[in-house]
Amino acid sequence: MLRIAVLGAGRIANIHAANVAANPDVRLSVIADPWREGVDKLASKLGCAVAYDCAEAIARDDVDALVIGTPTDTHIDLMLRAVKLGKPVLCEKPIDLDFAKAARAVEDIERLNGKVMLGFNRRFDPDTLQLRKAIARGDIGEVRQVVITSRDPGLAPVEYLTHSGGIFRDMTIHDFDTARTLLGEEPVEVFAMASRLVEPALAEIDDYDSVMVLLRTASGKQCHINCCREAVYGYDQRLEVFGAKGMILNDNHRPSTVRTYSATQTEVRDPLENFFLERYADSYRIELNQFIEAVRANAPLPTTARDGLRALHLANCAIESIKTGRAVKVEI
Ligand SMILES: NC(=O)c1ccc[n+]([C@@H]2O[C@H](COP(=O)([O-])OP(=O)(O)OC[C@H]3O[C@@H](n4cnc5c(N)ncnc54)[C@H](O)[C@@H]3O)[C@@H](O)[C@H]2O)c1
């Protein structure tokens, strides 16, 4: 039985730890976090050991693989420690905020044949999996254009935003990965626009809240990503893939399919599922299952550290495009 450590006891690590504990094929050995109160509570709820030091948890004899859900600036150090001990890792996005540091880490990981899966959970959302299968079957022919809508319900606290790395590396990074997977080709050019339409004070931390990005691949396929940190009607997550023989759409999720008609309104529906822990709950579980299956079968992981690097580079190209007002060539 694969024995897993979860690093972190915060928002996302809570989800991963619960999924590991609920999976009958693996054992949750330990949860590690320097936040004693939080990790004690989570570990006692899930019935596993506790560590207050992540390095100690990685080195434990009863840990075969790791899930990293700690702050972004700890990811590389922790994943390299695990790789050097030959332990596979599922690590949250983004890989890091510093491209040069991430590029060095990816080279080390590849040289050591390390197994690192980057947590681009949206790839494993059941809707997206279905959409990708339809594209692979040729249902809509050759893909021509992809439109990604990704809007959060509300602006995160300023403390979070200050350390997030900015909207492109924190939020749109998911969409850069989705664009790569749905286009089926690497983007070669990025053009971005960004505004502060929700919170002008974001200028103080050199960040934005409303962005649009255009991507183009070498053969001319196009993708349009639109992101906003605030949508008053809820968490707006939609995909549209347009091809030579048709189009595939996926729509927002609601708690029920009920529609109400009255004298003043028709088609009144439940609000959208609200926020990522709810909307993408299945994706985190399926992501973990695919990690476990690949590790047990000694098969290639479904995503890699290099995927993390590529998405980070696209985010950096978008930032450069905003600074220069020009389209930026993708050069990795
Ligand atoms: N895939 C997704 O949908 C998704 C969603 C949210 C967050 N994330 C990513 O997950 C990571 C964590 O985000 P979060 O929202 O859960 O953060 P969080 O602040 O809720 O949790 C982070 C935890 O890490 C602990 N910690 C702080 N410093 C540490 C250190 N030096 N070593 C080890 N642990 C430390 C904190 O005590 C805290 O419990 C980030 O990289 C974020 O980008 C991904």
Automatic annotation (TrEMBL):
Picking any one GO molecular function of the record gives: inositol 2-dehydrogenase (NAD+) activity
* InterPro entries listed in its UniProt record: Gfo/Idh/MocA-like_OxRdtase_N, GFO_IDH_MocA-like_dom, Myo_inos_IolG, NAD(P)-bd_dom_sf
The answer, when asked if Amino-acid biosynthesis is one of the entry's keywords, is no
Q: What is its EC number?
A: 1.1.1.18
Keyword 4Fe-4S among record annotations: no
Q: Which UniProt keywords apply?
A: Oxidoreductase
Q: Which residues form the GFO/IDH/MocA-like oxidoreductase domain?
A: 129-248
Q: Which residues form the Gfo/Idh/MocA-like oxidoreductase N-terminal domain?
A: 2-120
- Tell me which PANTHER family the record gives: BINDING ROSSMANN FOLD OXIDOREDUCTASE, PUTATIVE (AFU_ORTHOLOGUE AFUA_2G10240)-RELATED, NAD(P)-BINDING ROSSMANN-FOLD SUPERFAMILY PROTEIN-RELATED
Of which family is this protein a member?
Answer: Belongs to the Gfo/Idh/MocA family.
Could you tell me what this protein is called? Inositol 2-dehydrogenase
Its source organism is Pseudomonas lutea
UniProt lists the gene as iolG
